[in-house]
Amino acid sequence: RLNADNARFLLLAVLIVLYMLCGAAVFSAIELPTERETKERWEERLENFTRRHNLSRAELRHFLREYEEASVAGIRVDDIRPRWDFTGAFYFVGTVVSTIGFGMTTPATVGGKIFLIFYGLIGCAGTILFFNLFLERLITVIAYVMKSCHERQLRRKGVLPHNGRRGSGSSEVDSLAGWKPSVYYVMLILCVASLIISCCASAMYTPIEGWSYFDSLYFCFVAFSTIGFGDLVSSQNVRYESQGLYRFGNFVFILMGVCCIYSLFNVISIVIKQSINWILKKLACKCCHRCQRRLFRSRRNVVMPGNVRSRRNISIETDGVNESDTDGRRLSGEMISMKDFLASNKVSLAIMQKQLSETANGYPRQMSSNSKQNGFSGGVGALAIMNNRLAETSVDR
Question: Does any domain span residue 61?
C-alpha cells in the first residue's frame, strides 16, 4: 500500500506530465505555422542567392555551417565586445552560478569545460542556499513588520505602554514565531515585488538595448526565472551610454529579480503541495467511505470482537453506518459481539472483574438454597458469573 508521500509524488508527476502535454500542444499550435513560413522564405532566399552569384547549394551550406561554428565561439556579424574579457567572463559566471545559462557564451576548450563542471557544482549549490536564506530573511522581515504594526495598534488603544522595551535578540526571534505570515500573503508580496522590478528593469532595457517594452518584459521573466533561452541577452554591445552605470544596474536588477522569482517559485510550490494534499484527502475520504461500507457488509453473520475503528477520521456518516449496522444485526437475531452483549445487559466491567477475581481465588459467592434448587450453581469464571445472574433472575421471578 502506497503511503502519503508516494501518493503525493505520483500525483504531482502525473500533473506535471499533463501540464507539459498541454503546454506542448499550445506552443506547437502557435509557433509551428510561423516556423514553416520562415523556412519557406529562407529556402527562397538561398535559391535566389545561389542563382545570382552562380554558387552551388552545397558550397553555400558548407559556408553557413562554418559560420555557425564561429557563432558558437562568440563571433557575430555585428561589432560586439569580446565575450571573454574580464567583464564578459564575470557576466558568464553570473549566468552559471544563478543557473540562468543564456548560452550566448560557452567554453570552447577542454580545460574550460572541465573547470566549468566543478565550478558550477559548487557555485550553483551556494547560490541556491543564498536564495533560500533570502526567502527566510524576507519572511522574518514580514513577521517583524506585522508584529510592530500590531503593537502600535495596541499602544494606540492603551493596552500596551508606550515605553515598552523588547527583550534580547533570542527572545525577539522567539516572539516572531507566532507572527509568521500566511503563504498566500508572502506569495502576493513576492508577485508585487517581481512585477515592480521587472517593470523598472524593462524601462531601463528598452532605450539602452533598443528592444520593445514587451520584449524587455519577456527578457526579464526569462532571465529572472533562470530559464535563459539566450535569444535576448543584455549588455552585449561594445559601447553604451554610461556603460559602467548600466552594467551595475543590470547586475542589481538581475540579482534582485532572480531572488524574488526563485522565492516566488518556492512559495508557489508550497501552494501546489497544499492543493495536492487537499485532492488526496478528498480521494481518501471517498475511498474510506466505500471501504467502510464494504467492511460492514462483509461483517454480517460473523462473530467480531466489537467495533474496532480509528477515531482519527470520524464523521457523522460513518457513525450512522456503524450504529445502523449494529441495530440491524440485533433486530435480525444474528450473533452479536461480547461488547454489544455487555452493553445491552448493562453489566459493569469493574463488577465483572471483581467476581472473576473472587471465583479464581476460591471465594465464590454464597449460593442460596433457592438457587441450588433451581439448578443454577457451579461453574468457574465467566460460567459461574452467568449462573449467579440467572439464579438471581429466577429468584426474583
Answer: yes
- Per-residue pLDDT at 46: 87
pLDDT average, residue stretch 138-167:
78
CA distance 185 to 142: 10
Say yes or no to pLDDT of 347 above 70. no
Tell me: the pLDDT tens digits for 305-322?
A: 444 444 444 333 334 334
Range(s) of the domain holding residue 30: 1-76
Q: What is the largest CA-CA distance in the chain?
A: 134
> What are the residues whose beta carbons fall under 8 Å from the beta carbon of 377, sequence distance 6 or more?
367, 371, 387, 391
pLDDT of residue 331: 42
Residue 364 lies in a domain: no
Quickly list DSSP for 101-159: --SSS---SHHHHHHHHHHHHHHHHHHHHHHHHHHHHHHHHHHHHHHHHHHHHHHHHTS
Closest-CA residue to 130 (of 283, 255, 272): 255
Domain count, the chain: 1
Q: What is the pLDDT of residues 49-88, one digit of tens each?
A: 888 888 888 888 888 888 887 776 667 776 667 778 888 8
Q: Tell me the C-alpha distance between 103 and 83, whole Å.
A: 12
Residue 303 forms part of a structural domain: no
Please report the pLDDT score of residue 118 as a whole number.
93
In sequence order, the 6+-apart residues with CB closer than 8 A to the CB of 100 are 94, 223, 226, 227, 228, 254, 258
- 354 falls within a domain: no
Q: Hunting for cell 472473576 — which residue is that?
A: 356
